[in-house]
């Protein structure tokens, strides 16, 4: 209860290491979840990939389900995705997705495309996607059919992620980010309104 | 060499059964490939799902690789997807994808989103997607940057498939097909030109 939640450059080494380790465990679980069905992923596989012991994962996350419920969350990513005024949001979302692809080789939003492979956990992923991404965007829109328009704009964005990061389109990958923003953002913004 | 390739309503029962069985084997392989990595799928698993014996699969397809090379092809699907004049192609593609979702619960084009899970076979899937879908569409476009515009229009379409069929957006699934066509097709057509 006394641990501050803000970033602390001067945090003691022990606490900073714990944060790094947690992040590494989450990254390992996320990596495996993008490639295997949830039921097939063992704690040991996550531990091996993160370079820690299975008991350490249990210490930080309690059990496999609580670990994966964090991996299934979009909460940590959606703030940055939606961080722009509504009139500029289409351009911001397209640029944000493309920079994720070019700088980190992936975008957290794209995890939703693997939902069919995750069994019951796929339903959690879909429910989180709806409440944490679509509903949050819809709440910012004015005018009728905000929910539908939020889904269609996020869908348009996901399509760019698929053609860039999954189908790996040669033309789109050879094009400057800002040119793709110019070409693609109007379609996203048209659903958001205030174009 | 003497087997005609056209459909024959009057084909003898034996040949018609062979066609049905081939289709069932392909359907089983496609189903499994949308849920498991290629390396993890055994011929026996395909045979069990199709209700045939593994040797029968070998008789029809030679080996597992030739079977999966057919499963990885978009050739059989792209003709119907692109079967419209250029000026109406955006609406046609959106309607085609939505009817696939509402009538058959899936669209063959969406197989591309599982490419990351398929290892080397994923590269085949990507190469087929490029040559059989993107390049074929690009060849019909006029004006500059046809390849880039083909990728962006197909990407837009895939995004609708993801939000409808994978994220299972509640709003989009509660909306009439023709209303989604009205709202979404302009974004696809804008990339194709001749809007």
From TrEMBL, chains A, B:
Q: Which InterPro entries match?
A: Homeodomain-like_sf (IPR009057), HTH-type_TetR-like_transc_reg (IPR050109), HTH_TetR (IPR001647), Tet_transcr_reg_TetR-rel_C_sf (IPR036271), TetR_C_16 (IPR041678)
Q: Which residues bind DNA?
A: 42-61
Keyword Transcription found: yes
Keywords in alphabetical order: DNA-binding, Transcription, Transcription regulation
The residue ranges of the HTH tetR-type domain are 19-79
User: Which SUPFAM superfamilies does the protein's record reference?
Assistant: Homeodomain-like, Tetracyclin repressor-like, C-terminal domain
Protein known as: TetR family transcriptional regulator
């Amino acid at each position: 209860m006394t641990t501050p939640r803000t970033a602390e450059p001067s945090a003691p080494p022990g606490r900073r290491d714990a944060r790094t380790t947690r992040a590494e465990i989450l990254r390992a679980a996320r990596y495996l979840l993008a490639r295997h069905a949830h039921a097939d992923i063992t704690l040991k596989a996550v531990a091996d990939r993160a370079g820690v012991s299975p008991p350490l994962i249990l210490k930080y996350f309690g059990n496999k389900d609580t670990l994966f419920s964090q991996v299934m969350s979009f909460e940590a990513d959606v703030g940055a995705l939606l961080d722009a005024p509504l009139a500029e949001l289409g351009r911001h979302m397209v640029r944000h997705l493309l920079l994720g692809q070019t700088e980190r080789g992936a975008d957290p939003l794209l995890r939703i495309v693997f939902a069919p492979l995750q069994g019951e956990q796929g339903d959690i992923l879909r429910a989180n996607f709806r409440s944490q991404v679509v509903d949050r965007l819809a709440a910012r829109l004015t005018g009728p059919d905000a929910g539908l328009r939020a889904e269609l704009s996020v869908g348009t964005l996901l399509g760019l992620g698929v053609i860039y990061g999954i189908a790996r389109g040669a033309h789109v990958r050879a094009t400057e980010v800002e040119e793709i923003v110019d070409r693609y953002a109007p379609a996203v913004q048209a659903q958001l309104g205030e174009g």
